[in-house]
Amino acid sequence: MTTRKYRILVVDDEPSVLTTYRMILEQKGYEVVPAPSAQEARRALEGGRLDLLLCDLSLGEKESGFEVIECARRCYPGLPSLLLTGYASKEISDRAQRLGISVLFKPIEIQEFLGAIHAHLSAHDHKTASGG
């Protein structure tokens, strides 16, 4: 990891899941901005630089993770995003693919979780460094 600390917005309406993600990521040196709702996520998007968005699909509200990611991309074009869900369906996979969103299916192995985060941050850094 570079000396710059990556800032990750994590959105999940389950407090224990949000806490677990935050603890894992902070132990790996990431700065975590936790948001327990779509509304809190939108507020966090106004709070400065973000390097990655991790968002649960089902937020127990009128909005899903897809809407949060679309809102984030309006604020931060090109922001890498991972959609986390326990619901594997063709519809979800197809929609995510159309929107260029990677999906991780719960339960997620920690190494898979961290590997996906590292890959997205590295790809974004490379894209940013090459001017794309």
Shape: globular
User: In the CATH hierarchy, what is the architecture at level 2?
Assistant: 3-Layer(aba) Sandwich
Helicity range of the residues? 40-55%
What is the CATH superfamily classification?
Response regulator
Mean pLDDT, nearest integer?
90
Structural class: alpha/beta
Physical arrangement of strands within the biggest beta sheet: 2-1-3-4-5
Order of secondary-structure elements: EHEHEHEHEH
Low-confidence sequence ranges: none
Might you state the CATH topology name?
Rossmann fold
How many helices does DSSP assign?
Answer: 5
Description:
Helix content is 47%, strand content 18%. It has helices spanning 15-27, 38-45, 65-75, 90-99, 110-129; strands at residues 7-11, 31-35, 52-56, 81-85, 102-105. The chain has a 5-stranded parallel sheet, with helices on both faces. The protein has a single domain, classed as Response regulator (Rossmann fold), CATH 3.40.50. The longest helix is centred in the C-terminal third of the chain and has 20 residues, at 110-129. The chain has 5 helices and 5 strands. The two termini are 21 Å apart. The mean pLDDT is 90. The chain is an alpha/beta fold and 132 residues long.
